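Sample A.
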Amino acid sequence: MKIGIDKIGFYAPHIYVDMEKLAEARDIEPAKFTVGIGQSQMAVAPITQDSVTLAANAALEIIDDEDREKIDFVIFGSESGIDHSKSGAVYVHQLLGLQPQARAVEVKQACYGATAGIQMAKGHIALNPESKVLVLGSDIARYGLNTAGESTQGAGAVAMIISANPRIMELENHNVYLTNDIMDFWRPIYSDKAFVDGKFSNEQYILFFNKVWEAFKSKSGLNLSDMEAICYHLPYTKMGLKALRTVIDEAPEEVRERLLENYQISTQYNRNVGNIYTGSLYLSLLSLLENKEDLKEGVRIGMFSYGSGAVGEFFTGVLQPNYREHLHIESHQRIFDTRKEVTIEEYEAIFEETLPRDGADIELNIEQDPASIVLSGTVDNKRQYVNKNS
């Protein structure tokens, strides 16, 4: 039985910052952002968007009534959770109107959470072939204003329906994974901003990729020539390229050219959204599928997932017949076409605007947010969500 990605969608907030202007405001050479790390724009989350609403908006465009009846497991991968107890999946389940006989959980391991969710989903489908699983990767990357990590912030979510007989991608079973207790990136419970040892994290990302790649070749018997493309978790778009370059010489010249060309295509969305943590790898996959029009069915795509702290995994998927018919290319293009650029001053004000830390009630102006699902405020320490379509 084939199991894999039946549908995939994403959502990013309606406002963004131009990275050249951010660099100039920080007295940094713009090329360090646009070329050095490979970022052009950075999505900014208004106070009316959090990890729950981003995930729900990403899922809203891809689910239909049949999905609402068949989804019996919602897995919410995030490191931007809004509650230490209640999962974001429960909120999303209600906001989407899914049938009640379902499991709903939140999974956390830095940027690896959505990948863990996919593997859990595969096991569930293997036991329950008629079921569907909604896997969400939703995050808001925050390092703080005027910090070394500011240029690798972002906000957004990817939603995937995992099922038997998938229409987009069959996920193969040659997975190789690795865990090591390291402190390259972390966010203590008391902090709303992450801490990162940037140089160490980059080194560990590449080390993890090299280790799982070598193990994958041994386990699967496959090599670079068997890959049409490799998609990476992208905290910034140059990161995956650094990893790819460490193994690219293993391949013949025509394969090297193909992998490098497809890598660049896979980074187009990430370059203009920024880092979305758990969703970054799958935004890279989506960018490749939607922007490379001649990507043929039946080809194999490699995927490297990395979550600091750290867990890494390499796995592969095979594109299914007529997969492009099941993509939402036009609606995703609308997300980019209708976004509004904000000034650096506006961005800084939005960044500093937070919900009351003492639990006080607040009512937010949701009219300025065009999203279908928004956070409207807090009452009695409870976040209030609104689906404008309901």
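Sample B, a different protein:
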Amino acid sequence: MTHSRSLRRQLLLWLLLPQLVLWLVGGALTYRMALNYAEKGLDQSLSQSVRSLARQIKPMGSGLLVDFPKAAQAIIEEDPVDRVSYMVSSPPGKFLIGNQEIAEPPPTHAPGTLVFYRMEIDGKPMRAVALDVAYGEEKHPQLLRVQLAKSYIARERIAEELIGDLLAPLLLLGVALSVLVYAGIKRGMAPLTKLEKQLKERSVADLTPLEFTTAPTEVHTLVDAINRLLAAVRRSVSQEKRFINDAAHQLRTPLAGLINQTELALGESDAALIKARLHKVHAGAQRSAHLVNQLLALARSGSEAPMAQVDLAQLAQDVARELSPRAVAMKVDLGYEGHQHAWMQGSATLLREAVTNLIDNALRYGVSREAGNEPTVTVSVHQHAAHVVLAVEDNGPGLSDAQREHVFERFWRGSDLPGGCGLGLAIVQEIARRHAGEARVTPVAPQGLRVSLHF
């Protein structure tokens, strides 16, 4: 089971989904950058604080004077959530004052250099800084370490405020962009909606071309494709109507004749008269059958047929061989001359129909029984580069100039001989045009007719 998909929905999905993904990725990257900048601000604050604290510790003889008032110490340790801890040790690692829970910094650093590192106090992550200060006499140098640690709460609060200030406008811009994308898709789909409305409002019988003046190139291409399809359907419907009209018109007379002959035969009591009537019925039935076959061939010649590489020379020779028994029975010299192979792009079925009709016409109407004139029908195929010519030539009575002008018209007959219906050469011309070719009729000296197909 197939599910219909809305083009508008797919466009919205493919345009808005990447936008949402990019917005989320951008938000995560922005949050990470905000944390980094907030951490830099935290490091700067710790740097200033640890240097200030180091200045409050002064060497006195062999000892140290810690000028760090109780009030300042209380302020530093006052906030239990965003706490600040400090520790003074001399030599480094030997606790003097502060919070002993502060971890030691990485071992490799020089005096006077700030060292930042991460640590935990009571399971809470902290940002710490250590500063080693040299003091004492030249002969008895001493080293003092001041450490300061602060929780990441302030950093996270700053990052959250920063991300809120940044993402809120981005979210509004995303919503505005989504609205603009939807409006743009709706406007872009308007020509398709208009086209859909035109097609829905049309009746089934309306096959006139669609008209579109203001629309994008892609919609014009679609409209052109639909118009080509409508033109093909229009041609097909026209051919079907013409076929029905032709069949109804041409079959009416022979069928009426058959009914008339059968009614007369039913009223006859003489066996000889009944037999004569039956002969007429049989002849009429044969003519009707031939007419139906020709009408069907005419309908096939105008329909779509698959094209492939066809050896027209071999096809013509095959058809001539198939009809040679009939020519022998009629004492007609049917032969082939020309190239043994001639390849072209075409429908083997339709081309065989055309060659059969040409030879059949020549055997029916191109046979002359004048004294000293042996009836001949010659089939030939010649190829010159991309140009292929198939011809059927006879030495019969031929046609006058006036007659040759009407020879390819439907139901036109140039002879009163029985059996024909005036469709053979019309079918040939239709098949030639289906192959982007043309059928031509030319007289033959001293007498005869040549019908050629030029591809």
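Observation for Sample B: The longest strand covers residues 124-136.
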